[in-house]
Structures are given as C-alpha cells and as structure tokens.
Design a protein that fits this description.
The chain is α/β, with parallel strands linked by helices. It has eleven helices and eight strands. It has helices at 21-34, 53-67, 81-94, 111-122, 141-148, 163-176, 195-199, 215-227, 230-248, 254-265, 282-300, and strands at 6-7, 38-41, 73-77, 98-101, 129-133, 153-158, 183-186, 205-208.
Length: 301
C-alpha cells in the first residue's frame, strides 16, 4: 500500500535526444533521498507517450537500479492493446513493482470494452495495476467496480476531476469489493490545488509533479494537508501553486515542459521535451524560478 508524496520523475534526454541514464539516475537518487512514498517512472511527467519500448525498458531499469528497493517503483503502460501488454512485460522484467495503466490510444470505447482492455493488460503479469481514469479511458460507477474486482487491480486514479462522479465511484468500489485492499488517487495536473477537495471525498493520495523539481515545497504542502495547517496551505496556494497553474495553462504541454525546466535549473540537466511538446521559453523559465523562490520564501517564513 502506498503512502506519502508520490514522485513522478521526468525522463532526461541528452543533446542528441537519447535517454540520458546518468541524469535520470541522479534525478531518481535525489528524489528518493527527499522521501517520497513511491516512484512512478515513465508516466505522464516522464513522457511515456514519447518513448519507444526499448527506451521504456532503459528508463524502468535505470529507475529500479537507482531506487534500490527503498520505495516501490511503478511504471506507466497504455496505448494500443498489444503495446500495453508488451510494456507490462518489459516493466515486469525490468523489476518494476506495479503498473499505472494509462488509457488506450485515441479511440473511445463502450464501458465493457474498457473493462476488457484492463482485464487483458492486467493478465499479462503478476504486477499490481492502478487504473487511470482520464481522457478517452473514462469509467462509470459500474465499469469502475468491474475493474476494481479484477484480481490485480489495486487502485483507481482520477484524472478527470468530476468530484460528483469520483465520490460515487469511491463509494461504489468500497462497498463492492469486500475486504480487498484498494487505494484511490488524485491524478489531476498540479494535483495539490485540488487536493483539499479530493480529501473531502476520501482520496488522500495524489501525484506530485512538483516533487520532481521542488521536493521541499511538495513535502511541506503534504505535511500541511496531513496536519490541517490551513494557513500554510493557503500561503503556498497563493504564492506557489496557483501561479504555477496559471503559467502551466498558458501553453499545452507545460505540465511536462515546466517540470523539466525546473529539474534543470535545480541542478540536473533534464534536456528538452520531445515533439509534439515544446520547451518552456526563457521568459517562462524565469517566471518559474520566481514562483519557486516565492514558494520557498513562504517556507522560510
């Protein structure tokens, strides 16, 4: 069972556009030293969409070796059914301890088809699976319960943000799976800004892209949530998280590009994002530095 702040690392690329394993190792080691509850590699922040299966193996193996058993390592998988199956196999062979299952590629599907997709992918290995509810892979109460009852599915991550639906899904699953251990996650971009609302419906775990470049801020925010420190939560929202969201929303793909920029100016060369994403502009990188400085000023005060 996972707890604490969940670390979603970037995938560094070198000047030639290849996976930079040395930078990735340094990034993972620095993140794990800061104290996350788990590492989710080659997922959304890690540009899962832009990796070949061979690169995916390199990223997962490098992450597993750097973590060295200190916290659980989950890997992303998804896309077309045969590719998703292949990636689950690769992740298992590379030493990952679980899968975050992203949506199938492009196509919409009826609820029964989405459940079958999850069933087939989860059957490939013995790894536990967290299902990601987002984009074209959205669940109803009935289909969410159906996947929650699959033997290897151990979690449901909401990336849609419909709290009405999510609260009903949470209730339906908890009432319908008996004593099976199961966890729920907030997977919205910059999840901190919505986490107080998610806590009100019983969802305490969330993704933190911020942890990748500002673990001190991410951990302070999580601690404030746990302790009910409304003053610190509101100060960090005002000075750090809300300005970060405003900047993120100026350009599609900045949920990744800004994090990579933050990792780079924090001391580890993360390189560029891959097309079709674009790198943050110098002006926006400067704005991000100012936002981070404001967040740390709150902590210092």
């Amino acid at each position: 069972m996972l707890s604490g702040v969940l670390f979603f690392p970037v995938t560094p690329f070198d000047a030639d556009g290849n996976v930079d394993t040395a930078a990735l190792t340094a990034h993972i080691e620095a993140g794990v030293a800061a104290g996350p509850g788990g590492v989710f590699t080659a997922c959304g922040t890690g540009e899962f969409h832009a990796l070949s299966p061979a690169e995916f193996r390199v990223v997962v193996e490098t992450t597993v070796n750097a973590v060295a058993g200190r916290v659980p390592v989950f890997a992303g998988a998804g896309g077309a059914l045969p590719i998703a199956k292949e990636l689950v196999t690769v992740a298992s062979e590379a030493g990952a301890e679980g899968i975050l299952l992203l949506p199938p590629y492009l196509v919409g599907s009826p609820a029964a088809g989405l459940v079958e997709y999850v069933r087939q992918v989860s059957d490939v290995s013995e790894l536990p699976v967290i299902v990601y509810h987002r984009a074209n892979g959205q669940f109803t109460e009935t289909s969410a319960l159906a996947v929650a009852r699959l033997p290897k599915v151990i979690g449901f991550k909401d990336g849609v943000g419909n709290l009405d639906l999510t609260s009903r899904i949470v209730r339906t699953i908890r009432d319908g799976i008996g004593d099976k251990e199961f966890q729920f996650f907030n997977g919205l971009p910059t999840a901190e800004v919505s986490q107080r609302a998610f806590r009100s419906i019983g969802v305490t775990l969330y993704s933190s892209a911020t942890f990748a470049f500002a673990p001190d801020v991410a951990l302070a925010y999580y601690g404030a949530l746990e302790e009910g420190d409304a003053e610190l939560i509101e100060a960090l929202d005002r000075e750090f998280f809300h300005p970060l969201v405003r900047l993120r929303d100026t350009t599609p793909g900045y949920a990744v590009a800004l994090v990579k920029a933050g990792v780079t100016f924090s001391g580890i060369a993360a390189g560029s994002v891959r097309a079709p994403l674009t790198d943050a502009t110098e002006e926006d990188i400067f704005a991000l530095e100012q936002i981070l400085a404001a967040g740390r000023k709150v902590l210092a005060a």
